Amino acid sequence: MDKHIEQCTHREKADLVFKNCKAVNVFIGEIEDCDIAVSDGIIVGVGRYDGKKEIDLNGAYVSAGLIDTHLHIESTMLSPANFAKAVMPYGVTTCIADPHEIANVSGIAGVEYMIKEAKTVPMDIRFMLPSCVPATPFEDNGATIDASDTEKFIKNPDIYGLGEFMNSPAVRAGDEEAMRKLKCCAKTGKIIDGHLVTANEDDVNAYALKGIKTDHENVCEKDVLDKIKRGFYIQMREGSSTRNINALAGAFTDKTKRRLLLCTDDKQVSDLKERGHLDNNVRMLVKAGKNPVDVLTAATLNAAECYKTDDRGAIAPGRIADLVVFDDLYDFRPKEVYKNGVLVAKDGKALFDAESVFDAAVRNTMHTDYISEDKLKIKLKSDNVKVIGLMPDNVVTFNKKKKVNVRNGEYAKTEGLNKICVVERHKNTGKIGLGLMEGYGLKNAAVALSVAHDSHNIIAIGDNDKDMAAAVNEIIRAGGGMTFSRNGVIEETLELPVGGIMSDKDQEYVFEKTEILRKKARDAGVPEEIEPFMCLSFMSLAVIPELKITTRGLFDVIKFDFTPIEE
């Protein structure tokens, strides 16, 4: 006798019944008045049911648990367990995580640490195998995952697919190493995520040809449409520094809505506290005039179909009982979250404990000597230089030309500009890349952090060498973290001992520290439209245009080559 069939067909009471629900039916795009019967964590029936245990929802709305289709847990600076505790109250029950941040520090061992810790919490965290470690062939990171590693580890049952393929020039060129990675993943039938900053026709076609199914790097409606036409699912992203929802909302139409997903990509813990997680994406799209049921379909069913997880994503018999209870269809704010039919969050609070797992492979990862101020001098023969120009709420930068002050053959403080540096910290090579940036606004101070995509060397910015050197050395002392220096004195530090990019403490601790640091940066001149630390962390990512900086100097992403600072 099948227990679930007996309960489904009313011959036996269901173990648990949610009574008087307004269920979001993502199959027909309507709200359904019903009961939801659950047994052993599975939905066994939708209709009218009696249960051994009943929870009367009194007409509240219920949706399937939200699925974040692309994110980097490390960007929250929380370990996987503490991340789950932080985001499940926002209705996220499943996420597709790309651990390429920790992989760039500790390689496969870092990925294995993430998998191990994620298993200690109720959230379903599905890990992709990082595809571009390092992100480019000329990075100074801590580890490499090459084609041979990919061929071996893609078969691991804990690996869900191949993470965002950022090296579009390699795909376009048919690079042998890139082709091996893509081919071995395709053979397994697992998902391959994209990362295609432009919608260049040749690049889009090449990505589609090699089996890449998704893309989150879209800045305008045309990007979305051009990629959907070639079979992509598009992840509508709203992160901390990359906020694309408002620019892309117009592309959410009846024609495209079943090819749209939602993601957060990179989210800071302070942003979690202020705006929420994937629930914020939902609210923003509804506020932009989109049908709330369509938006929730993108966040649930579409995601489940794209990532071949047909056991979730809808309120239907046979699906996992991942349920989100909320009161207002047009202002999505979860009040109860159930995972496998068990209440895991209520009124914004997680109802389970989380503890970071100690793993020696991701500890003590700061391998570099302290630096002196003289290492930060920029030698110049001309006053015409290239400057990184910031774009508010984006990680795309401008390659700007500026006249600067020069004294005794060295750059001298120039109004409107900050000096920026990247210090190699994995293998003690002594490499320090130097450049200038416009738009950050820092005065009489410096900030530094070891969260610097994707190689996670130490990146620092300031208007004087004394504070910059002090900030870099504090990061080395702390074993990784974020810090603020003024007048040569360290005023605050958040230590990140897990790979130099994550804390082993909870959300509240990390939030408290980051808020102090953000306030200090704002007080020292960083404008409101620039997120002080998250923005800085992307300035070393040499795959996003136009001008970036690495341990080896300025990098012109358009030309895909290093470029001298002097014009």
Low-confidence stretches: none
Helix content: 25-40%
Radius of gyration using CA atoms only? 24 Å
Mean pLDDT, all residues = 95
Annotation, overall tally of beta strands: 30
Largest sheet: 9 strands, mixed
Counting structural domains, the number is 3
| Quaternary assembly | single chain
Q: Judging from the principal axes of the Cα atoms, what is the shape?
A: globular
Q: From the 3D structure, determine the CATH topology of the largest domain.
A: TIM Barrel
- Strand residue content: 25-35%
CATH architecture of the largest domain: Alpha-Beta Barrel
Tally of alpha and pi helices? 16
Give the termini distance in whole angstroms.
79 Å
Structure description:
There is one protein chain. The protein is 26% helix and 28% strand. It has 567 residues and is of the alpha/beta class. It folds into three domains: 3-59, Urease, subunit C, domain 1; 66-305, TIM Barrel; 363-562, no CATH class. Strands 1, 2, 3, 4, 5, 14, 15, 16 and 17 form a nine-stranded mixed sheet that branches. Strands 19-18-23-22-25-24-26-27 form an eight-stranded mixed sheet, with helices on both faces. The chain is globular and about 90 Å long.
